[in-house]
Amino acid sequence: MRQRLILVLLIPMTVVLLVLAGAYAWSVARAVQEEVSGQQLGDLSYFQSGVRQALRAGSPDVVAGEMTRYSELYGTSIAVFDRSGALWASGGGRFDDLGGDLRGQIELALSGRRSDPGPPVLPWSMGELVAVEPVFDDGNVIGALFISANADRVRAEILTHWSVLAAACALTILLLLFAVVRLANWVLRPMLRVDRAMAAVERGERDARVSDDTGPPEMRRMIRMFNQMAEEIERVIQRQEAFAMNASHELRNPLGALLMRVEYLATGLDDSWEEDVEKTRAEGRRLTQILDALLGMARSGRQDSSFAAVDLVDLVASRIAAWAPVSADRGVSVELRGGARVLSLTDRTSVESAFDAVLDNALKFAPAGSAVEVTVERDAAGCGIAVRDHGPGLEPDELELVTSRFWRSPRDQNVPGSGLGLAIASDLLGDLNGGVQVQSPEGGGLRVVLRLPGEER
């Protein structure tokens, strides 16, 4: 943005400056040429009386000597043509090969008219400065006085003026660039402070504010609005953290009491219940881990996941065994496909929670007597846990909405649920550099894939 602002400000100023400089350069060139032309006309006026007397007397020697001295002194060519257009007297030089333009000017002077100003002399142009004046005697034209000067001096003078002008333009452009950069920095400095503060908020520094209230009025209003927004976000997050801490703390007591009651009841059961009691203990310990993670996240303001190499096949198999009573109660079998180890560097508790949400959703919509197929696989993109059911599935336009919070298909409104399962799974895997893919496979139903990184990250 800084570069674009500098260009937007600098380019119009530079264009205007160059246009004005070009017009001034042209006027300077014309002024120098007119000055030289004025000097030539003054010299012609000086010779007018002498040439008139010489033509009247018919003796070119009267003015030839003075014309020769003038030519040698100023490096110009001067000549007199008679009424017929023939060369009558000169101060040196050759005048027998005059071009058509010069001959036309002489004929114009012999007709009683002064020659028109010559074309503009520019540093890269060639040619000479020529002036021709008629010589009158009692109102009659008796000859023409011709003077020609080399244009090198004029071109050099114009080039000197243009060089000074170019240097002044370059210096002005540098000053404009300096001023525009300072102006752009003054305009954008508050925006850069806001950008840094927003990046700090994104990193978790909720107390980041923009303290320097400077810059244009619009930026000062934006800074005040940003600080107010940051304060409101901090208050909302603090309330959420307080709620999470209170909820996790309050849930620990009944959970602890429940586990103690399980241990008490287990003392009165025979060995045939040992497997069920152990599964209940495992679920209790898992709930305790979830509450500890929730409490730690609330205290630190972020999720502090414990990454380790996790065998996804073993993880899925243990969760399927935990869900076996639910699947049996609903008349749905859960089939695990893929026996090889699939390792992923991830957080086990988060993956278990995400898989539970997806499996719960599959068991909820799978018809009785069907099977939910769970596949654990590795590919070039990483690892994947696919859960496929044979339920009613979703329409193609609903696949993008299924991971939204509280979204439910209109035809499933009578099915118990809150519409948070896949949304929670998506959030959990997003924190693990993974994601959730929802597909409509051939044959109906729904296929949900939990994408996870491989063992090496």
Automatic annotation (TrEMBL):
Subcellular location per the Swiss-Prot or TrEMBL entry: Cell membrane
SUPFAM superfamilies xrefs: ATPase domain of HSP90 chaperone/DNA topoisomerase II/histidine kinase, HAMP domain-like, Homodimeric domain of signal transducing histidine kinase
Keywords, alphabetical: Kinase, Membrane, Phosphoprotein, Transferase, Transmembrane, Transmembrane helix, Two-component regulatory system
Transmembrane parts of this sequence: 162-188
Uppermost EC category: transferase
Pfam family, one: HisKA
Assigned EC number: 2.7.13.3
GO molecular function, one term: kinase activity
Keyword Endoplasmic reticulum carried by entry: no
CDD domains xref list: HAMP (cd06225), HATPase (cd00075), HisKA (cd00082)
PROSITE patterns per record: HAMP (PS50885), HIS_KIN (PS50109)
Domain HAMP: residue ranges: 185-238
Domain Histidine kinase: 246-456
Catalyzed chemical reaction(s): ATP + protein L-histidine = ADP + protein N-phospho-L-histidine
Protein name per its UniProtKB record: histidine kinase
Organism of origin: Leucobacter iarius
